Amino acid sequence: MSIDTTAAAQTDTRARIAEYLSRFFPVHDLKDDENIFELGFVSSMFAMQLVSFTEHEFGITVENEDLELEHFQSISALDAFVTRKLLAAAPR
Amino acid sequence: MTTVKCVVWDLDDTVWDGVLLEDGDVKLRPGVLDVLRTLDERGILHSIASRNDPAAALAKLTELGIADYFLHPQIHWGSKSDSVRAVAEAFNIGIDTLAFVDDQPFERDEVRFAHPAVLCVDALDVERIPGMPEMRPRFVTADSKERRHLYRADIRRKEAQDVHHGTDEEFLASLSMRFTIGPAAERDLQRAEELTVRTNQLNATGYTYSYEELDAFRRSPGHDLLVAGLEDRYGTYGKIGLALVERGEDAWTVKLLLMSCRVMSRGVGSVLLGHLIRAAHAAGVKLRAEFVPTDRNRTMFVTYKFAGFTQVAADGEVSVLEHDGKHLPGIPPYMDVTVED
């Protein structure tokens, strides 16, 4: 993969996460680094939906030890987590 | 042995004598009405898997005065195994908790082949159904007698949600939900035991306790046994949550946290857990929770982790999670929460 396409893939991941999260915070212009868990009540349903979205949208498995708030708390945190998981899963 | 939660009925030559599309004047088969009524009073639900014309079949059920017994009827020309699966999904219950009644050996075999865990019953044996051990829940509580109406209210909510435009949270706000948390009273114990036995998906440990054990916890000064109830503009959901907390000197341990799967989409697991976090914080103690993973209770693990818990110990299959004492959850804006003493 060239540097250009890597950058494009990263932008794409971020955009898909931002688009998904914006559905839950429609009146709020969500910043990349904003902590979504401080914006309001985090229901067990939202938590599970976010984990399922991450797995299905990017084809990765979120292991129990990956289930840390810091990986899911903002657009950029989730982007970094997904990118790391995709890299670890990619054939070398 | 699994107790049956729902019986799925064929119609032609099973619920009524004859084939509706050949003879519009079909009559109820003897004994069927008694079976419908008896199981309904035990909290066992009824549904339908029939290859038929849906409008004609529903009109006949209404004319026979039994339409209200059946929820999520599957009346179409597709396979019965698909219909049985659709019923389990519509109720959000395990397919192993269904029974299927049909006069045709071919249909029973087709369902049995696709879903070996479904109890298949010949329509000739219909009068034996109430006596089957699978049809005898351990307790019949106020909630179980009302179960059909609770699910009927759920269907009306679902219909309202389907036509709702806007976010899930806006829909939840439109329900005017009232959530109550209080110590279990003696009259709650049968329902509490029923919840520990019936709940798989939203159950953090899967521990089951007998009526006597729960009663002992209820009286024990070292334990809190809490029951949660929920209602909204469509009516009550009944008692839908249970928590057992062991109160140590410097830490409380949640031994049991469970929620009925009917309220999964309401996010109430976090609300009950949030109450425990705030109560422990107010008492100046740590809050720990036991967790036993199964292939179905991942939502509970996510609930704990996203509420600020981390794993601090593991003993065999039991993990011990501990709250960081920092993230104190609020109350969701779309819900009234009342804590009773």
TrEMBL record, chain A:
PROSITE patterns noted in UniProt: CARRIER (PS50075)
Domain (Carrier): residue spans on this chain: 8-86
Pfam families on file: PP-binding
InterPro entries, sorted: ACP-like_sf (IPR036736), PP-bd_ACP (IPR009081)
SUPFAM superfamilies: ACP-like (SSF47336)
Name of the protein described by the UniProt record: D-alanyl carrier protein
Species assigned in the record: Streptomyces solincola
UniProtKB/TrEMBL annotation, chain B:
InterPro entries named among the record's database cross-references: Acyl_CoA_acyltransferase, FkbH_domain, HAD-like_sf, HAD_sf, HAD_SF_ppase_IIIC
Domain of life where this protein originates: Bacteria
Pfam families: Hydrolase
NCBIfam families the record matches: FkbH, HAD-SF-IIIC
UniProt-recorded name of the protein: HAD-IIIC family phosphatase
Organism listed in the record: Streptomyces solincola
